[in-house]
Design brief:
The complex is a heterodimer. Chain A is built from 22 helices and 22 strands. Chain A has a six-stranded mixed β-barrel with strand order 3-4-9-6-8-7. A six-stranded mixed beta barrel of chain A has the order 13-14-20-17-19-18. Chain A folds into four domains: 179 residues, no CATH class; 197 residues, no CATH class; 193 residues, no CATH class; 102 residues, no CATH class. Chain A is an alpha+beta fold. Chain B has a single domain, classed as Rossmann fold. In chain B, strands 6-7-8-3-9-10 form a six-stranded mixed sheet, with helices on both faces. A four-stranded antiparallel sheet of chain B has the order 2-1-4-5. In chain B, helix 1 runs parallel beside helix 3, helix 4 crosses helix 5 and helix 5 packs across helix 6. In chain B, 50% of the residues are buried. At the A-B interface, helix 13, helix 19 and helix 22 of A face helix 3 and helix 4 of B.
C-alpha cells in the first residue's frame, strides 16, 4: 500500500465518528431507495409472472344474459385470443357466529378443466367436482379472516334460495388480488370474499342454464384493445352488455398500479432528503479536515504531488464514507425489502413474492451515494487543490471576525459575551451554520410530513363517516330495482329511514377527452349519504346538471358552466349534454354526482334505484341481519360503523409503524447533523473554551457556548422546518392523490409540536454527548500550543 | 463546601486589602519605580506557601518528575520572575499555583487555605476570583473585540475594572473595538494583560508573556505588567527563559530539573524600558 493510502485510512479512522454520521445518513436514504425501487421491480415482476401464469384477462365484460352460442361470436372478435364465458354474481353469506352477513363474488368454473382466462391458484385442497353442486373454492384472504378451512360449510342466499356450500379448496386469482365488496369504501378482508363453484350449479342458482352473464378475454399479440372492446360490445349489445373494459378499469389491477406508483414516489422523496444532508455533512467534515491539514497539503505539494493527486487524496476519504453508507444502505434495503415483501405477500396473497433488487438498483444507490459525497466534498477538495504550497506551510491567519452590520451589532451589544461568541460564529461561518440549520429543518419537515399525513387520513375518515356518510347500513341490490322496493326495505326490522341511491358506469366526454367513471344519483334532499362540496360541507345535488369531483373535472378539463357529454356504457349508448354546475371535493373516489331522478331518466331507467342507505334502530340489528340473509337480490350490505372501525384499526397499525420509522430517520438526520456540527465546533473552539475555563468559567458556563450555538441554530431552523414540512406535506398529498383518494391539507398542531420538540431533543442529546469533551479539555496543553 | 466558603471570605478580605479604592491611585510614573526597588516585606504572611511540592507526569519507567520537593513562599504584591530552561518545571509550578494542575504530593497554600485539597469546581472559582493569566500566545477569543474580551472577565468578577479603564492602562484605549485578527501580536498580548487585570486579581500568572514578541513590543507588555503590579499590588509571577527579564523582578527563582536551584533578591531593579534581549 502506498504511504499516501495509509495516511488516507488513518485519516478516515481519525474521522470515524464523522464517517459514521455520513454513512448512517446515507444508509437511511439508500436503504429506502433500494427497498422501494427493488420492491417496485419485484412487484412488477411478480404481477407480470402471476398474470402470465394464470392468464389474467385483458378485457372483461358483464351482461344480462347471452346464450352459450354467443361465445363463438366473441371468440371471433378481432384481437381476441381466448375467451372464457362465465356466470358471476353477488350473494350475501351466512356464517355461523357472524351477525352481519358478508358478501361474496360468485364466479363459475368451467365444466371441464381449468379456466382458460383468470385461472385460480389453489393453495390448499382441490377443484370442485362438477358433479357435486355444493363444492366451492374460497378466496384465501376471506378464509383466513374467518378461520374457514377445507371441509367447513357456509350458507349463501343465491337468487332467493338458501344453499349450503362446502369448501373443498382455498384459492387465489390474479383477478382478485385486491377486492372490496359492493357498497364498501375500503378493503375489508372479512367483509368480502370470492367463491368459485361449478358452472352448472351456479347456472341453476341464477337460472342461466345454457347461458352466461360474464366474459373475460385475453388479447392476441398486436391486438388493438379499443377495437376489440368495440367489437365485443357490438356482439353483446342485444344481450344487455354493460360495456367491456380493459385492465385500467379492473379494480384489482388499478389498485396494484397505484401501489406501484406510491413505491416510486417513496423511492425518490425520502432518499433525496438524506442524500442532500449527507452531502452537507461531508462538506462540513472535509472542510474541517482540510483546514487542519493545511501544512500536510503544503508538504505533499512541496514533495511534488500534483494538485490533482492532492485533491484526489482528500476526495477519496469522502468516497470511503459514501461506500460505507452505500454498503450499509444496500444491506438494510434488502432486509427492509424482505420485510415489506412478506407484508405484501400476506396482504395480497401473491403465490410468491421474493424481494429481488436488480444490479441496476444497487448501482443506482451506489451512484447516488457517491454523487452525494462528491457534491459534498467538491468545495473543500478544490480549495485543497488550489492552496499554494508556500502559503499552506505558513500558519493560518487568525479567523477574522467582524460585527457584521449595524443591526446585528446593536443586537450583539445587548447580549452577554458568551452569547456574542455564539452569534458571531454563526454569522462568521454561514455555510456551516446553514448546513446545521438545514439538517434540523429537514428533520422537522420529515416529522411534520409523517404526522400530517395520518392527520389528513383521519380527517378524511372523519368527514367520510361523520359528514358524508351518516347511514348505518348501505344495501346494494344485485341489479337496479324499482323505487317501490324502498317500501319493502323500510319495513325491514329496525329500519328507521331508507334513502335511495343510484350508481351507474358512464362515459364522460369533454374537450376531446374521455373518462369512464361512476356517477352517483343522490336524492335532492339527501339526509344520509351526501355530496361534499367546498370546505368539506355537504351540498345539495344539482337538480339539473352534474357535479364533478375535482380530480375528474381536471381529467376532463371541465369547469363550472361547461357542458359535457354523458354516454351510457351499455345498450344503445344513449347520451346527453349536461352542464357542470359544481366542482366538489369528495376525498374518496373521483366520481360525478347528479340528482337521483335526473340520472335515472338519463340512463333510461326512470324510477329505478341501485340500493338504499339505511338509518337503523340499534336494538334491532339481529332481526334485520336475519331478514336480509334470506332476502334475494341483495348483493351486499355494508355496515358503516364496522367499516369505520376496521379501517381505523388497520390504519392505526400502519401509522404506528410509519411514525416509528420516520422518527428514527429524523433522529438520525437531526442527531447526525447536530453531532457533526458540535464535534467540529468543539474541535475549532477547543482553545477558546479552554481559555474560558482558565479564566474561571465553570463547565456549565463553557458548555453554554457549545450547546447554545447548536440550539440557537436549531431554533432558527424551526420556522424553516415548519414551512418546508408544510410545503412537502401539500406536495406529497398531491403526489399520493389517486382516483380513489384525495387528501385535503390538514393543519395538525400536535404534529407540528411533536416534530419540533422531538427534533430539538435529538439536537440537544447530540450536543450533550459532545459536551462531555469539555470535561476533558486539556487546559494546559491547549494554551501552550499555538493555533 | 466549607473550604471554598472560607476561602472566599479570606480572598474577599485579601482583595479588599489589595485593591485601593478606585480613583485614588496616582498615575504611575517612572520616578515612582524607585520605591519598588525595596525588597519584599519578608515578615508579612505569604500569599502562596509551598511545602515539599512534587509533580510527576506518567508512571513507572516513563515517569517524568517535573517538580521535586519545592519549598517556596511568595509574598503579597511582589513581582517574581521564574527562570530556567525548557522542562525545568517553572511552567508546571505556575499551573499549580493557578489551579490548572495539581501537585502529586506536598502542600500549596493560598492565604493559608490548602489549594491542594480543593475540588475542581472550587479551583475554578479560585481562578475566577483571584487569578489573572497571561499566555505566550495571548489566547484571546477571536470572535470578541478587545473590549469584549476584557468584559468577558468582568461578567464573572465581583468588582471588575471597566474594560475601557483596563485597556487604557495598557495603552490600547484607541483600539478597543478591534477584533484580535485586526491587532498586532503586541497589541493582542496587551489585551490579554488588560483582560487579566480587569478583575483586580490577587495574583497575575504570566507564562512566557513576551515569548512570541519582538523586543520593542515585549517591553511594552512588561511595562504594562509592572504598572499593574505597582498600581494594584497584584502579586505578579513571570515565567521566562529570558534571563534579561529577571532584572525587572524583585526576586528571581531559578529552576533546573524540577528543583528550585536558587532564589535571589534583586537589589538593583531595572525598568523594562532598559531591558535588552
Amino acid at each position: 500500500m502506498r504511504a499516501l493510502d495509509k495516511k488516507l485510512f488513518r485519516d478516515v479512522w481519525r474521522m470515524r465518528l464523522h464517517a459514521a454520521g455520513v454513512a448512517l445518513v446515507l444508509a437511511c436514504g439508500l436503504s429506502v431507495f433500494v427497498m422501494a425501487v427493488g420492491m417496485r421491480g419485484s412487484m412488477e415482476r411478480t404481477r407480470a409472472d402471476y398474470y402470465a401464469e394464470r392468464r389474467m384477462a385483458d378485457i372483461a365484460v358483464s351482461l344480462v344474459r347471452a346464450p352459450d352460442r354467443v361465445a363463438r361470436a366473441l371468440a371471433e372478435a378481432p384481437g381476441v385470443q381466448t375467451v372464457e364465458t362465465r356466470i358471476a354474481g353477488y350473494a350475501l353469506l351466512d356464517l355461523p357466529g357472524v351477525e352481519e352477513p358478508p358478501s361474496a363474488r360468485l364466479v363459475s368454473l368451467p365444466a371441464q378443466g381449468r379456466p382458460r382466462v383468470n385461472d385460480v391458484v389453489i393453495t390448499r385442497g382441490r377443484l370442485p367436482d362438477p358433479t357435486h353442486a355444493d363444492e366451492i373454492l374460497l378466496s384465501q384472504a376471506f378464509a383466513n379472516a374467518h378461520a374457514l378451512d377445507i371441509g367447513d360449510t357456509l350458507a349463501a342466499t343465491l337468487y332467493g334460495r338458501r344453499q349450503t356450500l362446502r369448501i373443498v379448496g382455498i384459492a387465489n386469482s390474479p383477478e382478485f388480488v385486491f377486492v372490496s365488496g359492493p357498497g364498501e369504501l375500503f378493503r375489508q378482508a372479512e367483509r368480502f370474499g370470492v367463491i368459485w363453484m361449478g358452472r352448472d350449479a351456479l347456472a341453476r342458482a341464477y337460472d342461466l342454464d345454457g347461458a352466461f352473464n360474464d366474459a373475460v378475454f385475453m388479447l392476441g399479440r398486436n391486438a388493438n384493445q379499443v377495437e376489440t372492446i368495440r367489437a365485443i360490445d357490438r356482439v353483446l349489445d342485444p344481450y344487455g352488455g354493460a360495456g367491456a373494459y380493459g385492465r385500467d378499469r379492473m379494480m384489482s389491477d388499478r389498485f396494484l398500479s397505484e401501489e406501484l406508483r406510491q413505491l416510486s414516489t417513496m423511492a425518490t422523496f425520502l432518499p433525496a432528503f438524506f442524500l442532500i444532508i449527507a452531502a452537507f455533512l461531508v462538506n462540513i467534515a472535509l472542510g474541517r479536515v482540510i483546514a487542519t491539514e493545511r501544512s500536510n497539503i503544503g508538504l505533499l505539494k512541496a514533495f511534488g504531488y500534483s494538485n490533482a493527486a492532492v485533491a484526489w487524496h482528500y476526495a477519496k476519504s469522502a468516497l470511503i464514507f459514501a461506500a460505507i453508507g452505500a454498503l450499509l444502505g444496500s444491506f438494510a434495503g434488502v432486509a427492509f425489502g424482505r420485510m415489506v415483501a412478506d407484508l405484501y405477500r400476506d396482504y395480497y396473497h401473491f403465490p410468491r413474492l421474493d424481494f429481488v433488487a436488480s444490479p441496476a438498483t444497487f448501482a443506482g444507490a451506489w451512484a447516488a451515494g457517491f454523487a452525494s459525497a462528491i457534491a459534498g466534498c467538491l468545495f473543500s477538495v478544490l480549495r485543497a487543490a488550489r492552496l499554494a504550497p508556500a502559503e499552506a506551510l505558513t500558519p493560518p491567519r487568525p479567523t477574522a471576525f467582524n460585527t457584521a452590520g449595524k443591526g446585528l451589532a446593536a443586537f450583539a451589544a445587548r447580549l452577554d459575551a458568551k452569547s456574542r461568541i455564539i452569534l458571531r460564529r454563526i454569522v462568521r461561518f454561514p455555510r456551516r451554520a446553514s448546513t446545521t440549520a438545514l439538517g434540523v429543518a429537514f428533520a422537522i419537515a420529515l416529522l411534520v410530513v409523517a404526522r400530517t399525513m395520518p392527520a389528513e387520513m383521519n380527517y378524511l375518515l372523519d368527514v367520510n363517516f361523520g359528514v358524508a356518510n351518516r347511514q348505518d347500513v348501505t344495501l346494494t341490490f344485485a341489479e337496479a330495482r324499482d323505487v317501490g322496493v324502498l317500501h319493502e326495505v323500510g319495513r325491514l326490522p329496525g329500519v328507521i329511514y331508507a334513502e335511495p341511491f343510484r350508481i351507474d358506469d358512464i362515459v364522460l366526454h369533454h374537450n376531446g377527452r374521455t373518462v369512464h367513471e361512476a356517477v352517483f344519483g343522490v336524492p335532492a334532499e339527501a339526509r344520509l349519504s351526501r355530496v361534499i362540496g367546498a370546505a368539506q360541507a355537504p351540498l345539495s345535488p344539482p337538480v339539473a346538471g352534474i357535479a364533478l369531483a375535482r380530480a375528474l373535472a381536471e381529467k376532463l378539463d371541465a369547469r363550472v358552466g361547461d357542458e359535457i357529454y354523458l354516454e351510457q356504457t351499455r345498450g344503445r349508448r344513449i347520451g346527453a349534454h349536461v352542464r357542470v354546475t359544481a366542482i366538489v371535493e369528495p376525498m374518496l373516489g373521483s366520481s360525478a354526482y347528479m340528482e337521483l331522478g335526473a340520472l335515472a331518466r338519463l340512463m333510461r331507467e326512470p324510477g329505478r334505484i341501485s340500493g338504499a342507505h339505511l338509518l337503523m334502530d340499534a336494538s334491532d340489528y339481529g332481526a334485520f341481519n336475519q331478514r336480509i340473509k334470506e332476502t334475494p337480490g341483495i348483493a351486499g350490505a355494508s355496515y358503516v360503523a364496522q367499516a369505520e372501525h376496521s379501517m381505523r384499526e388497520e390504519f392505526d397499525q400502519g401509522v404506528g409503524m410509519m411514525n416509528f420509522i420516520y422518527a428514527a430517520f429524523a433522529a438520525v438526520m437531526a442527531g447526525g447533523v447536530a453531532f457533526s456540527a458540535a464535534r467540529i465546533t468543539l474541535a475549532e473552539q477547543e482553545r477558546d473554551l479552554a481559555t474560558l475555563r482558565v479564566l474561571g468559567f465553570t463547565r456549565l458556563e463553557v458548555s453554554y457556548v457549545l450547546i447554545g450555538e447548536l440550539m440557537a441554530l436549531a431554533l432558527l431552523a424551526v420556522p424553516a422546518g415548519i414551512a418546508l414540512g408544510t410545503v412537502l406535506a401539500i406536495w406529497l398529498m398531491k403526489l399520493f392523490q389517486t382516483d380513489m383518494y384525495s387528501f385535503p391539507f390538514v393543519f395538525h398542531p400536535p404534529g407540528y409540536a411533536f416534530a419540533v420538540a422531538f427534533t430539538l431533543a435529538c439536537v440537544l442529546t447530540a450536543a450533550l454527548v459532545v459536551r462531555a469533551g469539555i470535561d476533558k479539555l486539556d487546559m494546559i496543553g491547549v494554551l501552550k500550543a499555538r493555533d | 463546601m466549607r473550604a471554598p466558603t472560607r476561602l472566599k471570605a479570606a480572598i474577599v478580605a485579601a482583595v479588599r486589602r489589595l485593591s485601593p479604592i478606585k480613583g485614588t491611585q496616582t498615575p504611575i510614573a517612572h520616578k515612582s519605580l524607585m520605591m519598588s526597588f525595596a525588597p519584599p516585606d519578608a515578615a508579612a504572611e505569604p500569599l502562596f506557601a509551598l511545602r515539599g511540592v512534587c509533580k510527576t507526569y506518567g508512571q513507572g519507567e516513563t515517569a517524568v518528575r517535573a517538580l521535586v520537593d519545592v519549598d517556596l513562599d511568595i509574598t503579597k504584591g511582589e513581582l517574581m520572575v521564574l527562570l530556567g530552561p525548557s522542562g525545568s518545571g517553572k511552567s508546571t509550578l505556575l499551573n499549580i499555583l493557578g489551579g490548572l494542575d495539581r501537585a502529586t504530593s506536598g502542600q500549596v497554600r493560598f492565604e493559608g487555605e490548602l489549594l491542594t485539597a480543593l475540588s475542581e469546581h472550587a479551583l475554578t472559582l479560585f481562578r475566577r476570583r483571584h487569578v489573572g493569566f497571561i499566555f505566550q500566545f495571548y489566547n484571546l477569543i477571536p470572535s470578541l473585540t478587545a473590549r469584549e474580551n476584557v468584559e468577558l472577565v468582568g461578567e464573572i468578577a465581583d468588582d471588575p475594572l471597566s474594560a475601557v479603564e483596563a485597556l487604557e492602562l495598557v495603552g490600547l484605549g484607541k483600539r478597543i473595538d478591534h477584533f484580535p485578527s485586526q491587532l498586532s501580536g503586541g497589541e493582542q498580548q496587551r489585551v490579554a494583560v488588560a483582560r487579566a487585570i480587569a478583575k483586580r486579581p490577587a495574583v497575575l500568572l504570566c507564562d512566557e508573556p513576551t515569548g512570541a514578541l519582538d523586543v520593542k513590543t515585549g517591553v511594552r507588555v512588561l511595562e504594562a505588567l509592572q504598572e499593574v503590579n505597582e498600581r494594584y499590588g497584584s502579586t505578579t509571577m513571570i515565567v521566562t527563559h529570558n534571563a534579561d527579564v529577571a532584572r525587572m523582578a524583585q526576586r528571581v527563582v531559578r529552576f533546573g530539573d524540577g528543583h528550585v536551584r536558587s532564589v535571589e533578591v534583586n537589589t538593583e531593579r531595572v525598568p523594562p524600558s532598559e531591558l535588552v534581549w
